[in-house]
Amino acid sequence: MSQTMEEKNKTLVLEAFDTLFNKRDYAAAERYWSPDYIQHSAHIAPGRDGLFDLIKGAPPTLRYEPGRIVAEQDYVIVHGRFSGIGQPVNWIAADILRIADGVLVEHWDVIQDEATQDQSKSGLPMFGNEFPTAGV
Predict the structure, then answer these.
(1) CA torsion angle for 39, 41, 46, 51 (degrees, to 10)?
(2) Residue 14 vs residues 68, 119, 124, 135: alpha-carbon distances, Å
(3) pTM of the model as a whole
């Protein structure tokens, strides 16, 4: 049974994020990101090098956990948590990626500070089934 294009794209994004953010294998990560990568994020410098340089400068404690992931044609949206980022709280992000020819070619994101249980008016966590613990 063959995978659909959307399933392949979701797998590609998850492998790419794990390779860059968790393993920090920059040489391997180059095969996932286009040399002509377009970055729309306001806090990341242009191109693949801008993204890689951001991660190179991040604390070694940086971790990425994927949550929900959806795909439609050439686009994938992954909802995830960035922890160990050197900030007082984790970031919850919705990353939107466009894929062409089997590589990530364009990126947008929406990022929020992760709320604690006391801060959550809904009483529900922003990511997963539990609120973050102290000392994130």
Answers:
(1) -90
(2) 11, 30, 25, 26
(3) 0.92
Using 50, 70 and 90 to split pLDDT, how confident is the model at 132?
Answer: confident
Count how many residues are written for the chain: 136
The string of pLDDT tens digits covering residues 18-47 is: 999 999 999 999 999 999 999 999 989 999
Q: State whether the Cα torsion 59-46-97-113 is positive or negative.
A: positive
CB 131 within 8 A of CB 125: yes
How far is CA 104 from each of CA 49, 81, 129, rounded to the nearest angstrom? 13, 20, 29
pLDDT band at 1 (very low <50, low <70, confident <90, very high): low
CA 38 to chain CA centroid, Å, is 15
Q: How far apart are CA 52 and CA 104, in angstroms?
A: 13
From residue 74, alpha-carbon distances to 10, 53, 99 in Å are: 10, 26, 5
- CA 81 vs. chain centroid, Å, equals 8
